[in-house]
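Methods: example folding runs. The two proteins below were folded one after another, and each record is reproduced exactly as written to the output file, sequence line first and structure-token line second.
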Amino acid sequence: MRLLAVRDVSKVFANGVKALEDASLEIEAGEFLSVLGPSGCGKSTLLRLIAGLETPSAGSIEWQQGRPDLGFVFQEPTLMPWTTALGNVALPLKLAGMARSEREARAAEALGHVGLAGFERSYPRELSGGMKMRVSIARALVTAPKLLLMDEPFAALDEITRRRLNTDLLELWQRTRFTAVFVTHSVFESVFLSQRIAVMSPRPGRVLSEIAIPAAYPRAESFGTSAEYAALCRTTSARLAEAMAAA
């Protein structure tokens, strides 16, 4: 079932920068979709438009049954340094007025789902970059959103941590089947994670092609060294090159 459709959306900022031009994309409920494109092509702007953090200059975003509850994971973890991992994850529930005992139980459960059981009382300064991002993901998921928007969340991490988090993210998605829209400029990451990839042109961005990734789930780390993965990466790289050339 379709969750939403982006219809011929353009976005021009006050400084005159045109981030998107006639961008169109449909997103299915429960799917894992990656939006792939070069830096500055409007991927993050598209995500913010879907989240309702920006409004289109032209075109429309059409929800099949109204905008669902959603979570947003930004490029940086944006954690509050003065409170613990538990306090950071519980914040959305606190703002919603949930009782302390219930919100802390929900936050502890969310931290467990991202592999951070035992770190509830740790402060951000005591956590590695990958652990901070796990806290950020737990905070986005603690409200059980139907849609999770992720804006290059692993871009600043080392390759080993990034691969581990990719695998863990897929396990979370398979367990709960939220709809995931994942922005990245990495061909390798998009192929590993996704059921479908939307390839964007350089700014002003628009979706030039879509690629189905038929590989079965679960995708263990061994998938990343398989011949199937290599072939899909070559196809995706070629589509990205075509998008760059079309600009």
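Second run, written to the same file directly after the first:
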Amino acid sequence: MTPFEPPAGRQVFSLAIAPRPDDIDVNDHVNNVVYLRWAQDIATAHWESRLDEGELAEWGWVALRHEIDYRRALTLDETAMARTWVGEHRGPRFVRLVRIDGPDGEMCAQVRSEWCLLDARTRRPARVPPWIAQRFD
């Protein structure tokens, strides 16, 4: 597995993440499903940081697919840094990439997700307008 890195010039959104006690499993590290929650959290924060309230009311997303690669365990006393950026987009679909690194800079996990843009009124897929793509490219 090759660790994800954003292409040169790509907009990157970052978020520090501190595990909570209930994120830790019987192996004393962050449970695998927590990484998916974190990927969703940073995707949501990124989306909300780029659109205003009126735009957010008009558009939404639904996840179509998630792929997670785990590399290194993260423990309760470690704060992680999550970074996200978007990949290719076609029609209503957008690829989102998330990389979660430990405090030592080593990759703990990476997530590749495919999302579908929805018209919030109709709840139907909608082609990604150029202005939305530009805010994330």
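Comment on the second run: The chain has a mean pLDDT of 95.
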